[in-house]
Amino acid sequence: MSVAAAQKKKLNRPLPWRTAGLYLLTLWAVVTLNFLIPRLMPGDPVLALLDPASGNYLTDQQIRQEVEAYYGLDQPLPVQYTNYLGRLLRGNLGTSIHLKEPVAKLIAIHLPWTLLLMIPALVISSLVALFLGAHAGWVRGSPLDRSLLVLFLGLWNMPVFFLGLLLLLFFGVQWQIFPIAGAVTRFQQYGSWLDWLLDVLYHLVLPLTALTLSMIGGRFLLMRNTMVSVLGQEFMVVARAKGLSPQIIKYRHGMRNAVLPFFTVFATQMGLAVTGSIFIESLFAYPGMGLMMFEAVGRRDYPLLDGTFLVISLAVLLANLAADIFYVFLDPRVSAQ
Description:
By secondary structure, the protein is mainly alpha-helical. The protein has helices spanning about 5-10, 15-40, 60-70, 75-90, 105-140, 145-155, 160-175, 195-230, 235-240, 245-270, 270-285, 290-300, 300-330.
């Protein structure tokens, strides 16, 4: 390679500081939207104080004004935004207006339950879609391929809330096989940590199944279509000409190249998993971040909404960053561009 060509390749290579700057800009946009969206909704956190139907009903307007001043809600929006950024820089997520607890503490309590629901759902749905999609693309046009297409197209177009409702009605209410709400049996005394773990897994079955089924359809279709497009590539023709076995051609050559866009979409679909978990946790009264966020929206609890939105947005952003980093290892051609 000539010196000029090497210099040209070096100039065309993405600069790390540009990527870092782009993520920092995205982070600032996320933080700003997390602040603005709750405050653009109708109502405010202390509106319940003047609602006679609320258990927190107060008739004294002066007390309402004092509460607004305590939480800084009486200040102009730019001042609130500046104070919000200052708190974040100090690592302070604020205090929940309704629950009277630090937001960081509430997130630390509810986040593990959401991770227990989301991570297995992401892993199971991805693995099933990966192998079934690759095989369906390999045997494209066969009865098995058509059957899987019908099944996963149906799951893909079925709302996650409807999926969860079907599982709840049949397996929870009609047949009473699994519990219909919560993460553990209330007021249950456990003999050991193993009994507690089994109870947690028992309560996890229905919400995990609903969330997994809601995510598997799109991933299957992506993997299947990508596998079909890979089969016509030149390297697949060369692999067949070498006399390699069908299993080696399918997995080592076909699936290995088809998984690249699948991996990229896996990171970008983290947001869909978060959205699905909100519906699922609300339906099954599962004590995760989704249920806490759903209740905070109804109460217009700004600090709690800011904190939960921020944590979820950061998780999606970090997932995309990890995808950018690992994509280089999956496809060496990226680093050579």
